[in-house]
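#struct-help
A.M.: can someone run this one for me? Single chain, 257 residues.
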Amino acid sequence: MTFTFSDRQRQILDEVRRAGQVSIESFAQIFGVSPQTIRRDVNELCAAGALRRVHGGVEMPQSENLLYSSRRTLNGVAKRKIGAAFAARIPSGASLSVSIGTSPEYAIGALEAQSDLMVLTNNLNIALSACEREGWTVRVPEGAVRAGDRDILGPQVEEFFARYQVDFGVFGVGGVAEDGTLLDFTEAEVAARMAILRNCRRSVLLLDRTKFGRPAHVRGGHMREVDEVICDGPLPAPIAADLAAAGVTVSITEDMQ
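D.P.: on it. Structure tokens below:
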């Protein structure tokens, strides 16, 4: 099932992401509507997996990622800009290893001018759309498909990415810790992402600003280990300084024309 959120629901998500937990009464005052109206909004958000109910209010899910269909609709404008910035760096004839996640999906979708690409991915959403591009080669690993996310994880995925040395490795993350450590929701997600990082000539991390401080609990890698970061807005100052010292290229889409 695909969920489409209203503008108010997106604002509710943004406020909960910022505050951690917000009451129904607070939202009613913020938006000038009845508590019943807010309850309908948050009930839909909870049904989509975007929020979790607590006594008197809502909070972000603490241990699981949002449904893929829900993540597609979040921060779509930012992800499109990030995808366009990524696409500007990719020449025709390139090879790419691409991770799970919606930001990489936006990025591959933005490769409209490129021809003769080879795309290796464990993200079936990306694989299916890439198959429609004339002249592209698409390869996926074997294994069970994860329901809802439509991706493949496991040791065979790591072995799959390790069999190739591609021009570009592109991936997103579940979250970023205060010190720049990369976070995801399962060990298998981290292992697949790290396999991409190890087996590419240039690594590109795609993320929007909501990933900073977002709760995800499996550590794996650090932002300073990638070659380039593309984000929709400025990074936290300590992380930006760390990446500058490490020689990581940082591209901010709001600064681009």
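A.M.: thanks! The chain has a mean pLDDT of 88.
D.P.: also worth noting: The chain has two domains: 7-62, 71-255.
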